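Cross-check.
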Amino acid sequence: MTRHARNCTAGAVYTYHEKRKDAQTSGYGTNSQRLGKDSIKNFDCCSLSLQPCRNPVVTKDGHLFDKEAILQYIITKKSEYRRKMKEYEKQRREEEAEKEESAVSEQKKLLEKFIKTETKIVSESVLEAPSTSSGAPKPSTSISNMDSGRDRQLPSFWLPSQAPTAKASKIPKPDSTIYCPVSGLPIKGKDLIDVKFTPVQDPDDRKSLIAKESRYMCPVTHDILSNSIPCAVLRPTGDVVTMECVEKFIKKDMIHPLTNEKLTEKDIIPLQRGGTGYSMTNANLEGKEKRPALQA
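Predicted model, tokenized:
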């Protein structure tokens, strides 16, 4: 039995604690760490820039973006599609030209073959090879393994003309659909909905809006909005309210509490939040880093 000291090296057994300690210090193995609050974006931050939104917009599935960032993303994807489409059209024109050239060369070969057979119509006795006095054909005296047409069965693979050629990889036809960088669903600029956050009215607090921990509130219940509180966006006006307000007040009559407009289920968009670091709020809060395996 080994001693129970932390840095004991006199034992004959390579314990689990020592193996784990060596793996951490050597840079091998898989590192798994639980993500904390500082590693998760806030509910009012852009999903691309991870900064508080100046002009927030939301998609149909509830992902929040800064308007400038998401429009720049869409423009970049459109220009990338145009560039790939030009390359695809160029490749298609080259393939068509190659097909036409091969068809012309095939017709030319057939024509040359026809002319050759027409001009060399002679008797069969003239085409026979000269034979020896015994009647058997004269054997070839060459020692080359390329003689008598054997070069077709035994090609010189070391010659550039006989070497296999690698064909150029074909470019697939690009997809014109632009997908959301977070959800992977199709996204369009006209489908983005402007979001209106209600700032907290505190005359005694002179901090800037970015420096405040409690920046926004629900315009109906005046509850402070945070990652721990589920929120929803009302499509007609873009106001952000809590899901508690939606369940208790809005879904009873399906009327907008601020403008008295009629609402439908599609007009209530749940806002995707980052997380709080607690397991009850988010299920996937563990980050893993794959490293080389440590073999004992």
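The radius of gyration is 38 Å. The beta strands are 31-34, 56-58, 64-66, 193-194, 198-199, 216-217, 231-234, 240-242, 268-271, 286-289. Passed to J.P. for a second look.
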